């Protein structure tokens, strides 16, 4: 399988954490790739940036198997949970928030939140958990909003012959984000992607002309 087809499964702040998970996954026959998260277009302009530096990437088809492995490990740990764990102080609404935004929490916290809700008499069966995950994925798959300013800036820089116009245009056009299930979807709406393509093409035409013009005008 081509490495470019692998998707981001987890991000870590240290290499040691990434290597520990890599060992666990590969012991179960799941091929992994460790990389830093500096792809030029796997970002968005809405203010969300990648804070961690080390990624574990696996094939999208292995996401479910990897998730089940980590959840099983978490269930084993939950049996011996510290009664002082912060989730015990969470309200019912806050515990549901952990389940809804499961991609922002560890498998341990997710599993413990589900158990605590069950103990409080809430219905947290497999069907409910699956529904919440699907709703979360649908939410994350929505295109990023508020790109008007970047589109205007991209056209300006592209027309002026700036290299920044090419970068903005390409990012709007080709940027993708990885969902918790491993699927990759465009970061921006079709309309924003079209603007990005136009900005990129304008930049590709204007930039060489600008460079040549400056070269001929030099004494």
Describe this structure in words.
This protein has a three-stranded antiparallel beta sheet, covered by helices on one side. Strands 4-5 form a two-stranded antiparallel ribbon. The protein contains eight helices and five strands; from the N terminus they run E-H-E-E-H-H-H-H-H-H-E-E-H. The chain has helices spanning 15-27, 63-78, 92-100, 107-119, 126-141, 148-159, 163-174, 190-217, and strands at residues 7-12, 32-36, 54-58, 176-178, 184-186. Helices cover 54% and strands 10% of the residues. With 219 residues, it is mainly alpha-helical. Strand 4 (176-178) and strand 5 (184-186) form a beta hairpin. 24% of the residues are buried. Helix 2 crosses helix 4 (107-119) and helix 6 crosses helix 7. The radius of gyration is 22 Å and the shape is elongated.
- Estimate the mean pLDDT confidence: 87
Q: How far from one another are the termini?
A: 53 Å
Q: Structural class per helix/strand content?
A: mainly alpha
Q: Which blocks of ≥5 consecutive residues have pLDDT under 50?
A: 39-44, 46-50
The tally of helices reads 8
What is the overall shape? elongated
Order of helices and strands: EHEEHHHHHHEEH
Q: State the oligomer.
A: single chain
* Largest beta-sheet characterization: 3 strands, antiparallel
Structural Rg: 22 Å
Strand portion, in percent?
Answer: 5-15%
Physical arrangement of strands within the biggest beta sheet: 1-3-2
- Percent range of helical residues: 40-55%
Question: Could you give the count of β-strands?
Answer: 5
């Amino acid at each position: 399988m081509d490495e470019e087809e692998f998707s981001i499964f987890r991000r870590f702040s240290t290499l040691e954490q990434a290597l520990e998970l890599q060992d666990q996954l590969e012991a179960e026959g799941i091929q992994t790739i460790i990389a830093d998260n500096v792809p030029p277009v796997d970002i968005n302009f809405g203010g969300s940036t990648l804070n961690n530096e080390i990624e574990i990437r696996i094939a999208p088809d292995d996401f479910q198997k990897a998730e089940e492995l980590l959840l099983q490990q978490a269930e084993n740990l939950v049996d011996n949970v510290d009664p002082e764990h912060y989730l015990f102080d969470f309200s019912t609404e806050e515990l549901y928030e952990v389940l809804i935004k499961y991609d922002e929490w560890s498998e341990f916290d997710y599993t413990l939140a589900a158990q605590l809700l069950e103990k409080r008499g809430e219905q947290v069966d497999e069907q409910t958990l699956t529904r919440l995950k699907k709703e979360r994925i649908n939410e994350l798959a929505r295109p990023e909003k508020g790109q008007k300013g970047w589109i205007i800036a991209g056209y300006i820089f592209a027309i002026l012959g700036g290299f920044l116009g090419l970068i903005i245009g390409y990012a709007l056009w080709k940027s993708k984000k990885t969902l918790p299930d491993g699927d990759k979807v465009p970061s921006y709406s079709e309309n924003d992607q079209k603007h990005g393509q136009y900005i990129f093409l304008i930049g590709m035409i204007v930039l060489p002309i600008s460079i040549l013009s400056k070269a001929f005008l030099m004494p």
